[in-house]
Amino acid sequence: MPQPPLPVPSALHVLVTSVQSDAHTWNLMFLQLTVEELGHRVTNLGPCVPEALLAAECVRLRPDLVVVSSVNGHGFADGLRLIAGLRSRAELAGLPVVIGGKLGVNGEEGAQERGAALVEAGFDAVFGEETVHLAGTGALPAADGSRLFRSYLAALPAGLPC
């Protein structure tokens, strides 16, 4: 009989979701499995989550991190609305929130500017197709995006108040 994985002492509670206009689910399952395999607990809100519902769930669940995924190319516009809603609530001001995936409909055209704008709007990191933007460090090549995401997770302390 398979045994459940042992809890990791510093395991995070990670909330995984998509932007409101994105109906894809496979990316959310991939993210959930990846984060769980790293020893963290995941709540997957599924696709097409309205910003108000996401904010309410963040207040109710108090996750250590929110990971927002976009596959349809509307991640930039939806992400700006989403982060504005989260950051407008005092109780969520310190909650780490990252976004990634396909953030624009014109491929990588403007990706640098989109990443920088999303960080400026309040995301702690942006994991784009070609670049990764970490708040306070600027753009890095996304060729190492998976490693950067894992490093980002490993650096977050669990259980901090938002």
Structure write-up:
The chain is α/β, with parallel strands linked by helices. The chain is 36% helix and 20% strand. The chain has 5 helices and 7 strands, in the order βαβαβαβαβββα. The protein has helices at 26-37, 51-61, 75-87, 111-121, 145-155, and strands spanning 13-18, 41-44, 65-70, 97-101, 125-127, 131-134, 138-141. A 7-stranded mixed β-sheet has the order 2-1-3-4-5-6-7, with helices on both faces. Strand 5 (125-127) and strand 6 form a beta hairpin. The longest helix has 13 residues, at 75-87. The protein is globular. This is Methylmalonyl-CoA mutase cobalamin-binding subunit. It comes from Amycolatopsis magusensis. InterPro entries: Cobalamin-bd, Cobalamin-bd_sf. Residues 11-147 form the B12-binding domain.
Topology:
Layout (H helix, E strand, L loop, with lengths): L12 E6 L7 H12 L3 E4 L6 H11 L3 E6 L4 H13 L9 E5 L9 H11 L3 E3 L3 E4 L3 E4 L3 H11 L7
Parallel strand pairs: 1-2, 1-3, 3-4, 4-5
Antiparallel strand pairs: 5-6, 6-7
Helix pairs in contact: 2-3, 3-4
Pfam families: B12-binding
Protein name: Methylmalonyl-CoA mutase cobalamin-binding subunit
Based on the model shown, name its key terms.
7 strands, 36% helix, seven-stranded mixed sheet, globular, alpha/beta, 162 residues
Summarize the entry for a quick read.
The protein is an alpha/beta fold.
Write the H/E string, N to C.
Answer: EHEHEHEHEEEH
Largest sheet: 7 strands, mixed
Beta-strand proportion = 15-25%
Contiguous low-pLDDT stretches (5 residues minimum) are none
* Helix vs. strand class: alpha/beta
- Mean pLDDT level: 88
Distance between the termini: 39 Å
Helix content range: 25-40%
